[in-house]
Write a structure and sequence with these properties.
Elements (H helix, E strand, L loop, with lengths): L2 H4 L16 H8 L5 H5 L3 H11 L11 H6 L9 E6 L8 H8 L1 H15 L3 E6 L4 H16 L15 E6 L9 H8 L23 E5 H13 L1 H6 L1 E2 L2 E2 L1 E8 L5 E6 L4 H8 L9 E5 L19 H6 L9 E6 L4 H15 L5 H18 L7 H12 L15 H4 L2 H28 L5
Parallel strand pairs: 1-2, 1-4, 2-3, 7-10
Antiparallel strand pairs: 5-6, 7-8, 9-10
Helix pairs in contact: 4-7, 6-8, 7-10, 14-15, 14-18, 15-16, 16-18
């Protein structure tokens, strides 16, 4: 497909009226639950095979094959559960928020089809606590689905039963990790678990559990309706279909944009999002949420391809949050602010993350506020090998979940693009303080 045809595909979001969240409008305009009848005419195994054929990969960050994940469930082990990850705690990521608010029935339909495919009779939607409007609309949508026979017992006369529980979190970033989410659902603190066992084998209540992201499940009805081959025709290489990217920061038109994978960062940032205001130049951009290493102008023509971005650019598309920063921005200030976020959100379970994230935040604070030393960046990177061995991407890990290595993404980016500049700046700061006889705090 030509590059210009990849833009603004919006097959799943197009022409949604303002009240698209309501049952009547969703049925009339969006054909909500229109894929269910076809799904129930198929066997669960056939649905799983269609999703594998589609090439659909998880859209929450990890990018693992959705159908492959479903197929990992142990045979004939029941009960089993579906957990829907709607926590979306990655900074500047707001696509799932929009999907829950604007079209909750699309999500519910995806939940029903997926539950049928994996033969789960209980599904839990874990929604970020701050999503008050989304919780209200999703709660009403679930009630309407029950009232109209799309949830509950014997759905559409298929003999399949499904109960859906809406569970609101309490604003904890680590609940976005699938095992942290399961711990929270069970009433404990949201702390990650060591894997194996993986959730598909032993998850919620020690039973086989599939954890899927909101956007992933919202795509499932379209795959069932149009076929796996239809979805696989879109995209590039192993990155099939479309993704919604949350573009924020210094762009003319920030927002959520659904594009076919294979479009470039330039087409998304400078085309759809309108570029940087007032003719200012690009300093850097973060391609996949706060956890991702940064990129600069030379990477704008790289494709939105999950594997290419990881293997060649040494970063990730992650949660689909693209944060754009212009030439007026100090990278050290951004690195410090991200470190402060991760230090605050660390659950404290793993020593490198619990102790290291707070220490890193303090060092970056002094570097960004005029109290740095020429050796500080090397000091940070030396420490980083203890939490993310090799300081490469994908990173090595000495922690249970990805939060620990994520704290090093910004410092590694500082070294990659501005090492000499930062060391010289720290040297000048030291000389200035000496001249003023200022003692660092």
């Amino acid at each position: 497909m030509a590059a210009e045809e990849r833009l603004l595909v919006s097959k799943f979001l197009r022409d949604r009226p303002d009240d698209s969240w309501s049952f009547s409008v969703a049925r009339e305009h969006n054909d909500a639950y229109g894929s269910l009848e076809k799904a129930f005419s198929m066997t669960p195994e056939q649905i799983v095979e269609e999703v594998i054929t589609s090439g659909l990969r998880g859209k929450g960050g990890a990018g693992f094959g959705t159908g492959q994940k479903w197929s990992f469930l142990p045979k004939a082990v029941f009960p089993r559960y579906l957990a829907v990850n709607g926590d979306e705690g990655e900074p500047c990521t707001f696509k799932d928020h929009m999907l829950v608010e604007r079209d909750p029935h699309q999500l519910i339909e995806g939940i029903v089809i997926t539950s049928y495919a994996i033969q789960a009779h209980h599904a839990f939607v874990y929604l970020r606590g701050e999503f008050a409007l989304g919780a209200e609309r999703l709660g009403q949508a679930i009630a309407d689905a029950y009232a109209n026979g799309f949830l509950g017992r014997d759905i559409l006369g298929s003999g399949f039963d499904l109960e859906v529980v809406l569970h609101r979190g309490a604003g904890c970033y680590i609940a976005g990790d699938e095992t942290g989410l399961l711990s929270s659902l069970e009433g404990e603190r949201a702390m990650p678990r060591i894997k194996p066992p993986f959730p598909a084998v032993q998850g919620l209540y020690a039973a086989p559990t599939i954890v899927n992201n909101v956007e992933t499940l919202s795509t499932v009805p379209h795959i069932v309706r149009n076929g796996g081959a239809w979805h696989a025709e879109m995209g590039v290489n192993r990155s099939k279909g479309t993704r919604i990217f949350s573009v924020s920061g210094h762009v003319v038109r920030p927002g959520n944009y659904e594009v076919e994978l294979g479009a470039t960062f330039r087409e998304l940032i400078y085309g759809i999002a309108g570029g940087i205001p007032d003719g200012r130049a690009l300093k850097f951009f973060i391609p996949g949420g706060a956890s991702a290493p940064w990129l600069v102008e030379e990477h704008l023509d790289a494709p939105l391809d999950m594997d290419y971005v990881q293997s060649d650019l040494k970063t990730m598309l992650g949660s689909g949050a693209i944060m754009v920063f212009d030439e007026t921005v100090d990278p050290l200030l951004v690195a410090w602010r991200l470190a402060k976020f991760f230090a605050h959100e660390s659950c404290g379970k793993c020593t490198p993350c619990r102790e290291g994230s707070g220490w890193l935040e303090k060092i970056l604070y002094r570097m960004a506020h005029g109290y740095g030393r020429a050796e500080d960046l090397d000091l940070i990177l030396s420490f980083g090998n203890n939490v993310a061995p090799g300081l490469s991407w994908p990173p090595g890990m000495t922690t249970i979940c990805q939060l620990g290595p994520s704290i090093m993404s910004a410092p590694v980016s500082l070294k990659r693009f501005w090492y000499d500049e930062i060391v010289e700046r720290m040297r000048k700061d030291t000389e200035r303080r000496a001249a003023l006889e200022v003692i660092p705090a």
